[in-house]
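Contributing new complexes? Match this layout with protoporphyrin IX containing FE.
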Amino acid sequence: MTTIAELDLPEIDLTGGALAGADYHRQLAALVTPRQHAWLARSPLAVIVLDREAGEFFLRSRATAFPGREIADLFGVTAGPLREQIDANILNQQGDRHRRLRALVGPAFTPRAADKWRPAMRGFLAGLWPAVEAAGRCDFVTAVARPYPSLTIAAVLGAPQADAARLQDWSGWVQRQFDIAALGSQVAEMERAVTEVYGYVEELLARRRAEPGEDLITALLSAEQAGDRLSHAECVNLVLNVIAGGIDTTQAQLSHAMRLFAAHPAQWAALRERPELLGRALDEVLRSEPITPFTARICVQQVEHRGVVFPAGTIVAVCAERANREVPGGEDFDITAERDGRLLTFGAGPHFCLGANLARAELEEALTFLAPRMPDLAADGPVVLGNTEGIYGVDSLPLRWG
Ligand code: HEM
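Output block (do not edit by hand):
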């Protein structure tokens, strides 16, 4: 047995916002050269796990947890509204408590439940499209990718559509708790957003209590009213997790999808000509550009894997980007390739993304809507990428079509 500290591993700095675009893929690929322990690398705060089997092992292990509190401590976020939200976040819950929360909210996120929102999704796309149709060009992030997921989440929650822009803004800020650079510099903005969104959710719950509907909040309220199954604070926090986790994620993934297709016109043409490729096309987007390239775990007790000892307290960054590319031709974007469909994009194990079915439905509806309407899709200027810490977003994506 060797302890992780004894290994001579290549280093890469995942923090600082510099890692994005083709260079980010190249730098990560360069870490997986033939060498001993090629499944491991080091970054200033964490050990990086580069392959799928080991990534799944850490995500599924009962001896690990999401290190939200520990990372907040490192940055001095030890009290205040942001810290309260981090403490209450479902990602930072474990064991029975986590299982109970998932069981209560799970039925609202099955594939069938997600399908129920497809007509609404089509309606939102049809509503956004006329503003850009005639011009044949747009900044895709502003025109579609940003408003569309927040309209969808508003519908899922039973919130007014007029509130979608506010939900989008809050989601962006609250999700920065997963971005190390932001934890070091933007805590005040995040605290402002957390305070506002808590107030908003309380109001929304009060309104739904008075006027029940067919939405997620009404379902959660009935669990709250059924006795001790769901406390009020848990109910508020679940709604907040859906607002935070359900908007800028899908926004980022849809933006990357269209960026990839604009850069690979033959792939876009294939999807336009063969709509039956939709499922594979979406898997290929999720595989090749996961918007959560890294997620983290802390070893709550000593963990051993493949003869390496990870002492309690070790933080592990699981690299979905490398895990997903560990297939033949894995660096290529090819929607016609036969793949095994196993991805780490939505995580694995008990914290597997709650909204994966909803996100897939949203992305499928968007690609189905856009493909026939955007022939000869191409870039119309430089794309502005976010960074790969936290959620890997796209700030601007100028596109044109024929
Ligand atoms: C393409 C879009 C999305 C991607 C790539 C994504 C990715 C992820 C990943 C990787 C995790 C697991 C993190 C970990 O284990 O460390 C996760 C968890 C989660 N996601 Fe998503 N997500 C997406 C969309 C959504 C949507 C639409 C919702 C709305 C409900 C959502 C809500 C959540 C929640 C609440 C969790 C925490 C689950 C738990 O702790 O049990 N996500 N997501």
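Reviewers usually confirm one structural detail per submission. For this one: The radius of gyration is 21 Å.
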